[in-house]
Amino acid sequence: MERGNLSVNELVLVGVGGILGAGFFLASGIAIHTAGPIVLLDYGISAFIMSEVFCALSEMIVANPVDGSFRVYAEEALGDIGGFLSGWVYWTAGVFIMSSEVTASAIFAKFWFPNVPLWIFALIYSVMVLCVNALGTKNFGTIESWFSTIKISALFIITIVGILTLLGFFGSKSEIGVKNYFIHGGLAPNGIKGFLGALLMSLIPFGGVEVTAMTASKTKKPKKYVPIARKYIVLFLSTLYLSSIAVLLGVIPWYEVSTKESPFIKLLSFTHIPYIDSIMNFVILTAALTTMNGAMYGVTQVMYSLGKGRFAPTFLSKVTKRDVPIYALLFSSVGLLIAVILSYILPKDVYEYITSATGFIQFFNWIIILYTFIKYRPILRDKNHEYFECQKHSFPLRPWFTIILIIAVLLSTLVVPKQAIGFFGGLILLIIILLLYFIAKKLDLFDKW
């Protein structure tokens, strides 16, 4: 695979683009309505978890910048079962993420064209993402960088508008202010159940650090650029998420936040700018498309790595002149096909059904990454005397503590009926992947592939 394509700025923007998606603009409303103002603590915990996972990935990437990234590390540290599980669990999660994001994009497009069937937009955006990923890594990085700039700028503008609203430039001062944190049932109006019920929805917007890991091996100087990119990505997202939610809660009482549309649309409505709802809808659509684009890149690279590492047919590791694993790309597009079909069959409920099954699988893979890090770090340090340490203190307590936090987040979904569907759905998919591993092992498919 070709190296040295991406600059540190592109890596930062690709990382932010892969993480900042429709999940924040939409799921934030559900999280706020579920927990109330204490949702800020949910987002703080989520930022910490993401930072720790990213930190573990950074150490491994700098020490061993290979194609396939965390899947290769899991195989080397945990054996065949680690490499197989990490790759296929991430691929499955990525397929579901793509499906949910392409469906969300179609829903946003119906804002302007309500009479056009949902599946048509799903099909159009699926073809678009396939074409972008077929262009190669450099073009992927450039396109993601532009769209990431739009999303970051939009969220920054939203925060500024919120601050100006709090200062009285827009809206009525009597209805806004810090008092909104306390006068409507206190900081935790729905108690511990509300706090726990919002944990998954606050963590989902931080998902996607794996895409950065996949692209990091394509940077000019991984040892220099990856630590820098990690710091900026964590700082950007944590600051933007927490500040925008904090401002939103001061302007709009938590119980008035809609769970059916982005709460930021209502926030911007205070400005009375013409067509502000269409402008915001375009930004959210951009967020969904770039997240889907990043997910497609990530699952394609993992499928390529699985084919290269004996855990999938070898033809999936073949690449084009543009350095694109074309067969892995086409195979990974099955998720988009599923989304198009479901958009045709279940146009009203498809987004909720797909999204609820994503969280468990995605964050279970974070547990695999952290456990791999615990086992892999001593091996890497023995091989590399100039080993880069992101976690200089409290190892292995920090990764173990983060694993416990992720397990708590996954179990917290059981208090919310709709999220519980995702928990059990994800558990079933995980069991299926495990069964496929033992079947492939028994049939000696790893050697035959």
End-to-end separation in angstroms reads 20 Å
How many domains in all? 1
What structural class should be given to the helix and strand makeup? mainly alpha
Portion in beta strands: under 5%
Q: What is the C-level CATH assignment?
A: Mainly Alpha
Helix percent band = over 70%
Briefly note the CATH topology name: Amino acid/polyamine transporter I
Relevant CATH superfamily: Amino acid/polyamine transporter I
The whole-number mean of residue pLDDT values reads 81
List SSEs in N-to-C order: HHHHHHHHHHHHHHHHHHHH
Strand element count: 0
Tell me, what's the shape? globular
CATH architecture: Up-down Bundle
**Main beta sheet:** none
Could you tell me the radius of gyration in angstroms?
21 Å
**How many helices does DSSP assign?**
20
Would you identify the regions where 5 or more consecutive residues have pLDDT less than 50?
none
Brief overview, please?
It is a multi-pass membrane protein. The chain has 449 residues and is mostly helical.
What does this structure look like?
The protein is mostly helical. The protein has a single domain, classed as Up-down Bundle (Amino acid/polyamine transporter I). It is 72% helix and 0% strand. The protein is built from 20 helices and no strands. It has helices at residues 8-19, 22-35, 39-63, 70-78, 80-109, 118-133, 137-166, 191-197, 199-203, 209-216, 222-251, 263-269, 276-308, 326-332, 334-345, 350-356, 358-383, 397-412, 417-442, 445-448. InterPro entries: AA-permease/SLC12A_dom (IPR004841). Keywords: Amino-acid transport, Membrane, Transmembrane, Transmembrane helix, Transport. It comes from Thermoanaerobacterium thermosaccharolyticum (strain ATCC 7956 / DSM 571 / NCIMB 9385 / NCA 3814 / NCTC 13789 / WDCM 00135 / 2032) (Clostridium thermosaccharolyticum). Residues 11-439 form the Amino acid permease/ SLC12A domain. This is Amino acid permease-associated region.
